[in-house]
Structure formats: C-alpha cells, structure tokens
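W.,

You were right to be curious about this one. When I first looked at the sequence I had no strong expectations either way, so I just let the prediction run and decided to look at it fresh. Below is the sequence, 366 residues in total, followed by the output.
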Amino acid sequence: MQFGIQREALLKPLQQVVGVVERRQTLPVLANLLVQVQDGKVAFTGTDLEVEMLASIEVGQAQDGEITLPARKLFDIVRALPDGVAIDLSLQGERMALKAGRSRFTLATLPASEFPTIDNIDLVEQVSLPEAVLKKLMDHTAFAMANQDVRYYLNGMLLDLNEDSLRCVATDGHRLALAETALASDVGARRQIIIPRKGVIELIGLFEAGEGEVELEFGRNHLRVRRGAVTFTSKLIDGRFPDYEAVIPIGADKEVMLPRDLLRAALQRAAILSNEKYRGVKLEVSPGKLCIKAHNPEQEEAVEELEADTQVDDIAVGFNVGYLMDALGALSGDTVTVKLRDAQSSCLLQASDDERIRHVIMPLRL
C-alpha cells in the first residue's frame, strides 16, 4: 500500500475525522484511523463505536491496500509539516513510512481487519436538504442539550421528521430549543430519532454555510449523513424523547419586544451580582419598560432598566440568567420577543422576524 499527496489536501480529511477518535480507548485499534486506498482514492475512517466519520480524497501514484494508523500522531505530524510539501506514505512490513521533504517518520500499524465499521444501517427513510439550513437548525438548538444527565435520552438532539418538515429539538429539563424547516418533498411517515451529543457536535463542526446539499438516511438504529466526500454515521439513543410540544407555552400573550444585543448586554451586567448558585434574575415588565434585577447573599444588587415595546400591564418572573443569555446568543436577528403568561409559567423567546426558532425557559422562584 502506497500513495502520494500534498500536505493541505491530506490535512482536510484528517481534520474531519480525527475529532471522532477518543483520546482514552478501551480497544487499542480505536485510537487509530482506518486508511483504505482503492481506485485512486484514499479514505480515512475514525470511530468510537458510537459515531463514525469517513472522509475520502483522490490521490496520485497509489497502490491499493488498507491498514490502521495512530490517528492523533498522524494528524499532528501532517499539521506540523510546512505548507505545500509533498507527502509520500508507504507500508513497509508492519510499519508505515511517511516522507515529506527532508523529514522521515515511521508509524506503528494495526491490521485493518481489527477495525470496527458500520456498514448496513437498515434504511427506512431518506431526505435531502441544504447544508446551510441543517447547520442553522442545529446551531440554534444544540446549546439546550443535556450533558451527562441520568435521563440519557436528553443527552442528545431529537430530529423530528414530519410529512413536510424537519424539526431539531433539544432540552435539559430546564430549557428547550426548537428550530424547524420545510422540506422540498413529503416523507412517508413521521419519524423521531435522537442523535447523541457527540454526534451533534461533530456534525456542527463538519457543516459549512455553503450552497451544498446533505443527504440524511434514517436507519432503525443509526443516522447516516452524506456530505460530498464525507460520510457520517451515528448510533441513535434508544429512548423516548419528552412530549416537547406540551412544553411550549400556550396563551403567552404578554409580549416584550426589544433589541437583542441591548437585552443581552443588560443581562450580562446584572449577572455579575446574581446568586452564584442559582444565577437568578427577575424580569419586571411594565408599560414601555423592562427592569432586570439581581441580588446575592452579600446583599448586593443590580438593577437594569430598558425601554421596550410591551403588551403587558405588570408582571414579574424569575429566570436563570445563563439560560436567557444562551438562548439570546443562539437567536439571530436584531430584535427579540419575550412572551410571558404569568409569574409561574415558562417564557418563550423568539427572533421577532422568525417564528420557526423557539426557545422555552422554565421560571425560577426568587
């Protein structure tokens, strides 16, 4: 097995797959990348048994074969080489020789037969949509995913495929983020799958806001995403996602509209004097005004008054300031609308010009 390639051309597929490889492994081969040379192409595959990423690229002067190489070491060597250098890799017995200019490296290998790959995903549905659209959906919702929650089905993102729409939903039990888009063609039946947190993060890192299309293949236990020369496959979380539609507040008719950056900056300042444990701030809304208050056990207090377009007489509700700032950071647009119902109910945050992205935050008792 042998192939030659420019440094920059090799670096891109390695960057795409190396993130999947965990630094601490139960099996030695999982610290390696599977390298397959066939028909003038080289394919690199990384996996942690939950998520798999495959990226391929065309190469010149290639001799077919397959082997596994240490992922992190190969990536670090290629990244450290000078720009524009030609790289030659050739298998010599049980070692891989890498030559680049006057540099020489010899890497240990493990047999390709030991590398676990996901081949058949038992396809049940297939949809295609613009890459930039799917990236936007995930960007606007990923922040609300739980992290190492005992309710394992919250440690990921729900993809809810309806007849003519796709929704991305994430929640950690205290807040919820939902973003949806229309599909160009109808699908057969409604399908709900939960992608694990790591898979979501890898996909967001992979996607670009370009013109390309991505293909989603829904399997019984896997999701496969095809994007150009990259194929991503993830196991699904086996669990029932909460009824998220029941969480979205109905009848939240008390609206507060104001500039997003202005609100975010005021919350940032108020947060400095909030209780370090509960991170609570109180939103007090009156005609034409939003007042943000925070205090802590040291009897320190912050008060921020903002002019706002309000449809409400008087209401005061407490929220976790970190959750509010995360939601505002994930919204786009200059103006945001905060919808409230009463002092005991969740609030709904939306960009004033886009109702397809909704963020729900549970109230705090202060």
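Here's what jumped out at me. Residues 22 and 48 are 6 Å apart (CA to CA). And, maybe more interesting for your project: The first strand starts at residue 2 and ends at 6.

Coffee later to discuss?

I.
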